Automatic annotation (TrEMBL), chain A:
Transmembrane segments: none annotated. This is Septin. InterPro entries: G_SEPTIN_dom (IPR030379), P-loop_NTPase (IPR027417), Septin (IPR016491). Keywords: Coiled coil, GTP-binding, Nucleotide-binding. The gene is septin6. Belongs to the TRAFAC class TrmE-Era-EngA-EngB-Septin-like GTPase superfamily. Septin GTPase family. The keyword Nucleotide-binding applies. PANTHER family: SEPTIN. Residues 328-406 form a coiled coil. The lineage of its organism: Eukaryota, Metazoa, Chordata, Craniata, Vertebrata.
TrEMBL record, chain B:
One of its GO terms (molecular function) is GTP binding. Keywords: Cell cycle, Cell division, Cytoplasm, Cytoskeleton, GTP-binding, Nucleotide-binding. It comes from Cyclopterus lumpus (Lumpsucker). It is found in: Cytoplasm, Cytoskeleton. The gene is LOC117734584. This is Septin 9a.
Length: 434, 357
């Protein structure tokens, strides 16, 4: 019989369910075997959420595969090829099957692989994944938080679509997967695998797997620690990457309608395991390991993100006798600092704006003044001209008058002269006559 | 030794009846979903398999096991240990040794925490029973709730410390007190001031389940009267015991919980002795005038308590502890360092004061 307070006592039980606990047999039916049911019921009432990220070049059938996996028609039109960068488009759907409600979010990489320079293609994907982790971390760090009703947007599974070249992985694929493998559970799949023959496919798969291994890319391994699913999971692990074909069209085979792609030379049945690995993918992704994918995301990838982020922000685990909650305090302090900076920036921007406005105003005033001056000058000029004209006119008038006067004077003189001359003429005439 | 996951038939509610095809996933040998199935009749091609997540969750739960921490509070001699042993059908709690005249009654309340691993049908549980010997035994019982309050808050603190670590454990060990069973002595009259005081303070930080101890000393009428009186007093003092009204999630919850609220406190009798009654071996207490069958609801309400605590509301009790009581503690603790932020978050005063001792 151990007496424990808050500390632990030396473990002496073989059960791994805790230290210091003794295994004790029950003398009858207690009833706590209903606990898993209680837990499941609670989750059913709450609903589940699952978020899948589809990474792959445009045209590899990502949307079609999602439609096929979940038996619904999700999206609208296929995306264009002329995107300037990689953007992530996410859509959330509510699905229900028997009593299970699933909030499924499908995130698509739009424009992946379309650019001429693909160096930065992986960046927006990494940013997106980190943003989801960040949102969860923010919620977790809040003082007043509602974690149990938080809509978890963290990516639980990343389906990486490999183009069916039949040769090897593209360098873009390798680089992207390497950047993502510590952030998300990667499940590589060969898309549109009806383009490859069976023998080529086997070689392709081997090549892909060896390239992944030699580059140290950690893809998601289906868990083999639980006996009930260990066998099937380890078998499936050896079939990775899954070669899939997606189709939402149905074709009649025998007397059944099956999902298939019809070619002149034959029909590829999606759910026929001899034709492609679609069934395996569905089995692994949804029916067997959905919960494990969610758990790995939370306990491994998210924890890693959280650890890195907190360390980056300058925290470290405090030893027991230093002040507790330095994490919270420092976080708050940092946040205040950040807010302060933000405010300062805002102030600066406002100042700058005010300044600019002032300058502009001054400029405008200047311009206005100039205009006024110009106007004044013109006016003056005009007046001057006018005056000149007036003067000239006056002088012209004067001249005219003078001329007139002279004219009249001259005429008068002429008249007089004529008269005198006439009389003179007369006189002369008279004299002659005499 | 563990069996594979099973759908436990006795507990499938209507919600679960349409459950998944578990066989399909257990092993391929069972004619799994590959190839062959496509040709069989009645195979639903539109079946995606989302509901298989229930089975996955169950598997995970079975593998991880569960933890439950129950505290028992009450004066000596009220049958606390016996009740725990009856509830869990094993010696999970040790009866306190009778103090001889030489041994002094302890001056303070001890807190004794004992853990056991129990297993039933593949479900493993780590049960911790926290005993509080000495409670209410002194002449002056002022502040006897303090050590208990401190213990409960210490568990919240330990959890919080681990949660804010940068390198933290995958599964934070949960030592938080999920449920506190308070033993009311069967006086038949009303609650004593000590009872009121204790429950008033502690109902704000932990789920309290009050029970009338040693109820075989009350007749049915006396019991009903006592219960009614207790309920009135609880109401009058604003004491919200489990299941708390304010945490009912929906109409269905409310309906179920109202029925329970009309019955609390449960009048219980505990026993770890079996007797022969009508050809069956039953747990009971044998007296000269008859044998009280512990699990007979005509005799006492032990079965209701067991069903509430273990068979139906165990998960709910743990949820309320983690998402409400613990969160309140956390808010208050984090606000201690940031009184400004407290006002910004608009936390009502009584929540903040709840954890005051």
């Amino acid at each position: 019989m151990e007496i424990l307070t808050n500390s632990h006592t030396p473990p002496h039980t073989c059960n791994n369910s805790g230290e210091g606990a003794r295994a004790v047999p029950l003398a009858g039916h207690v009833g706590f075997d209903s606990m898993p049911d209680q837990l499941v019921n609670k989750s059913v009432n709450h609903g589940f959420c699952f978020n899948i990220l589809c990474v792959g070049e445009t045209g590899l059938g990502k949307s079609t595969l999602m439609d096929t996996l979940f038996n619904t028609k999700f999206e609208g039109e296929p995306t264009q090829h002329n995107q300037p960068g990689v953007t992530l488009k996410s859509n959330t759907y509510e699905l229900q099957e028997s009593n299970v409600r699933l909030k499924l979010t499908v995130v698509n990489t739009v424009g992946f692989g379309d650019q001429i320079n693909k160096e930065d293609s992986y960046k927006s994907i990494v940013e997106f994944i980190d943003a989801q982790f960040e949102a969860y971390l923010q919620e977790e760090l809040k003082i007043k938080r509602t974690l149990h009703s938080y809509h978890d947007t963290r990516i639980h599974a990343c389906l990486y679509f490999i183009a069916p070249t039949g040769h090897s992985l593209k360098s873009l694929d390798l680089v992207t997967m390497k950047k993502l493998d510590s952030k998300v559970n990667i499940i590589p799949i060969v898309a549109k695998s009806d383009a490859i023959s069976k023998s080529e496919l086997a070689k392709f798969k081997i090549k892909i797997t060896s390239e992944l291994v030699s580059n140290g890319v950690q893809i998601y391994q289906f868990p083999t620690d639980d006996e009930s699913v260990a066998e099937i999971n380890s078998t499936m692990n050896s079939h990775l990457p899954f070669a899939v074909v997606g189709s939402t069209e149905e074709v009649k085979i025998g007397n059944k309608m099956v999902k298939a792609r019809q070619y002149p030379w034959g029909t590829v049945q999606v759910e026929n395991e001899n034709h492609c690995d679609f069934v395996k993918l569905r089995e692994m992704l949804i029916r067997v390991n959905m919960e494990d994918l969610r758990e790995q995301t939370h306990t491994r990838h998210y924890e890693l993100y959280r650890r890195c982020k907190l360390e980056e922000m300058g925290f470290k685990d405090t030893d027991p006798d230093s002040k507790p909650f330095s994490l919270q305090e420092t976080y708050e302090a940092k946040r205040n600092e950040f807010m302060g900076e933000l405010q300062k920036k805002e102030e600066e921007m406002r100042q700058m704006f005010v300044q600019r406005v002032k300058e502009k105003e001054a400029e405008l005033k200047e311009a206005e003044k100039e205009l006024h001056e110009k106007f004044d000058r013109l006016k003056k000029l005009h007046q001057d001209e006018k005056k000149k004209v007036e003067d000239k006119r006056k002088s012209l008038d004067d001249e005219l008058n003078m001329f007139k006067q002279k004219k009249t004077a001259a005429e008068l003189l002429q008249n007089q002269a004529q008269q005198a001359g006439g009389s003179t003429t007369l006189k002369r005439d008279k004299e002659r006559k005499k | 030794t563990s069996e594979g996951p099973q759908v436990i038939p006795s507990y499938s509610s209507s919600a679960m009846s349409e459950a998944v095809v578990p066989d399909a996933m257990v092993s391929p040998a069972v004619g799994g979903p590959y190839g062959e199935k496509a040709s069989g009749p009645g195979v639903d091609f539109s079946y995606v398999g989302i509901d298989a997540i229930l089975e996955q969750m169950r598997r995970k739960a079975m593998k991880q096991g569960f933890e439950l921490n129950i505290m028992v509070v009450g004066q000596s001699g009220l049958g606390k240990s016996t009740l725990m042993n009856t509830l869990f059908k094993s010696k999970v709690s040790r009866k306190s040794v009778q103090a001889t005249a030489q041994e002094k009654i302890p001056k303070t309340i001890e807190i004794k925490s004992i853990s056991h691993d129990i297993e039933e049908k593949g479900v493993r549980m780590k049960l911790t029973v926290i005993d509080t010997p000495g409670f209410g035994d002194q002449i002056n019982n002022e502040n006897c709730w303090r050590p208990i309050m401190k213990f409960i808050n210490d568990q919240y603190e330990a959890y919080l410390q681990e949660e804010i670590n940068i390198n933290r454990k995958k599964r934070i060990p949960d030592s938080r007190v999920h449920c506190c069973i308070y033993f009311i002595p069967p006086t038949g009259h009303c609650l004593r001031p000590l009872d009121v005081e204790f429950m008033r303070r502690l109902s704000k930080v932990v789920n309290i389940v009050p029970v009338i101890a040693k109820a075989d000393t009350l007749t049915l009428e006396e019991r009903d009267f006592f219960k009614k009186k207790i309920r009135e007093e609880l109401r009058a003092n604003g004491i919200d015991v489990y299941p708390q009204k304010e945490f009912d999630e929906d109409a269905e919850d409310r309906m179920i919980n109202e029925k329970i609220r009309e019955m609390i406190p449960f009048a219980v009798v505990g026993s770890d002795q079996e007797y022969q009654v009508n050809g069956r071996r039953l747990l009971g207490r044998k007296t000269k005038w008859g044998t009280i069958e512990v699990e007979n609801i005509a005799h006492c309400e032990f079965a209701y308590l067991r069903d509430l605590l273990i068979r139906t509301h165990m998960q709910n009790i743990k949820d309320i502890t983690s998402s409400i009581h613990y969160e309140m503690y956390r808010v208050r603790r984090l606000n201690e360092n940031n009184t400004v932020v407290a006002h910004a978050n608009g936390m009502p005063e009584h929540h903040l004061a709840a954890h005051e001792m």
